[in-house]
Design a protein that fits this description.
Glucose Oxidase, domain 3, GMC_OxRdtase_N, about 500 residues, 12 helices, seven-stranded antiparallel β-sheet
Length: about 500
């Protein structure tokens, strides 16, 4: 039987959820807080950096991070049709099979690697052709065969010279090694899940897409979600009723909406004067992220040409285990054909950056409200580098990036010379540099985690514990962050959410 469904958010997850529900014959209304795609920098994959602090960026910041030199870290999040998939680096990483087996082993049936692989195959249209573990024919183009910029090929060569393996397809079951990045790109332009899934059915009779429509709170009666209160263009408050609500607002906005709706830790809500609808202690807890630290080089023998239109500045990355006994890689440096200066860093206009990356994050933070209104600041604490294991792994990744930069393919062929941290900073003195320059990898997860324990917010079918008619499908449900970029797993989560719903109904 057809149901009326509200989907909150038209980002990576919401676009997929909406499309699949429309295809199944349900009446779907999408609420997107941002506007339509009008900024040309969104489609030009060489211009992603221009989108930070733009009208399409929520422009969030953390609270001061005690273990990151007291700095407030910028958290760019998409406020536009396509969500953060309209702002990100378009990197497609399925992540490790062990990630999903770990979720299943923690009491989440349906999420093992063998159970999620068919869903991944349903998503992708891989230009490398079909195989037992790769697929063509899905809505999302995944591009792995494109010309590398000369500096990016030399980065691969240099990494191999240091002893790393060259991995031609990190999405075929083994992450380890240096690889060309696989991108969600079509005809040289960004292909967000909105463009791939939702835009093609935008004219469907059973679909309504409302932009500049920000959800304020859920309408709940006796433990059942009845609809959503939202504001149009920041002014007019309206209410919309439905049989089901899918919350796809992301790891920051989904828990914030629950908290404003009275769903969360009762004591925290009461302190803010928010009526407690359902005491759910885990809302906003378990927040964590991946982190990067720039290792920046200039060149004296050859000039690194900045990316042209249709070229992404990040074309290669590597997966590596900072300790050999680890089950999966815990570091993922990503390599840019531009110098990634930030804060107090500066230097030549051209160069390249090997961004040391932590993906096996152990630190856990939280998200809280400062007040009951959508205009009150959300207090985001990633607890960056709070766990000493995270600092150790990130330091190891920085040292590896420095070593790659000294390899012959870069030092001799390009005249590569380290600018930051700089040759004057000895390996044993890197800790201060890492704390002063660590930034987010833009992969916040976990704040409405899936599970059956006390801090779980959703069950294994992504239904919110104790609240009927409400599912969450986005990065917030991850119990533990995946071993790589989170965009592909978020799309997987969206597809699984609809699979669960359609099986149930």
């Amino acid at each position: 039987m057809s149901q009326r469904i509200i989907v909150i958010g038209a980002g990576s997850a919401g676009s997929i959820v909406s499309r699949r529900l429309v295809d199944a014959g349900h009446q779907v209304t999408v609420l997107e807080a941002g506007g339509p795609v009008t900024n040309p920098a969104i489609q030009d994959i060489s211009r992603a950096g221009e989108l930070w602090h733009s009208e399409q960026d929520w422009d969030y910041y953390t609270v001061p991070q005690a273990n990151a030199a007291g700095r407030r870290l910028h958290l760019p999040r998409g406020k536009v049709l396509g969500g953060s998939h309209a702002l990100n680096a378009m990197i497609y990483v399925r992540c490790a099979a062990q990630d999903f087996d770990g979720w299943a082993a923690a009491g989440n049936p349906g999420w093992s690697w063998q159970e999620v692989l068919p869903t991944y195959l349903k998503i992708e249209n891989f230009d490398g052709g079909p195989s037992e573990v790769r697929s063509t024919g899905g809505p999302l183009d995944v591009l792995g065969d494109y010309p590398l910029q000369p500096i990016q090929q030399s980065i691969i060569d240099a990494a191999v010279q240091t002893g790393l393996a060259h991995n031609p397809d990190y999405n075929s079951g083994q992450l380890d090694g240096i690889s060309q990045v696989q991108l969600t790109v079509r005809d040289g332009e960004r292909l967000s899940s909105y463009r791939a899934y939702l835009e093609p059915v935008a004219g469907a009779e059973n679909l309504e897409i409302l932009t500049n429509a920000q959800a304020v709170r859920l309408l709940i009666d006796d433990g059942v979600v009845l609809g959503v209160e939202y504001v149009i263009d920041g002014e007019e408050v309206q209410q919309l009723y439905a049989d089901q609500v899918f919350l796809c607002a992301g790891a920051l906005d989904s828990p914030a909406l629950l908290l404003r709706s009275g769903i969360g830790p009762a004591e925290e809500l009461s302190e803010l004067g928010i009526e407690v609808v359902h005491d759910l202690p885990g809302v906003g807890k378990n927040l964590h992220d991946h982190f990067l630290v720039p290792v920046i080089f200039g060149t004296s023998k050859r000039r690194v040409e900045p990316p042209k239109a249709g070229q992404t500045p990040a074309q290669t990355h590597l997966f590596w285990r900072s300790q050999p006994d680890l089950e999966v890689p815990d570091t993922q440096p990503i390599n840019f054909s531009v110098p990634m200066y930030q804060d107090e860093l500066s230097g030549p206009e051209t160069g390249f950056s090997l961004m040391a990356g932590l993906i096996g994050t152990q630190s856990r933070g939280s998200l809280r409200l400062s007040g009951p209104s959508i205009d009150d600041e959300v207090l985001i604490d990633l607890a960056a580098l709070a766990d000493p294991a995270d600092l150790r792994a990130l330091l190891a990744s920085v040292r590896q990036c420095r070593e790659i930069g000294r390899a012959a393919a870069l030092a001799e062929e390009w005249g590569a010379a380290e600018i930051h941290p700089g040759p004057e900073v000895a390996d044993q003195d890197l800790e201060d540099y890492v704390r002063a320059n660590v930034v987010t990898y833009h992969h916040q997860v976990g704040s409405c985690k899936m599970g059956i324990d006390q801090l779980a917010v959703v069950d294994p079918q992504l239904r919110v514990h104790g609240i009927a008619g409400l599912r969450i499908a986005d990065a917030s449900i991850m119990p533990q962050v995946t071993s790589g970029n989170t965009n592909a797993p978020v799309m997987l989560i969206a597809e699984k959410a609809v699979e669960f719903f359609l099986t149930e109904h």
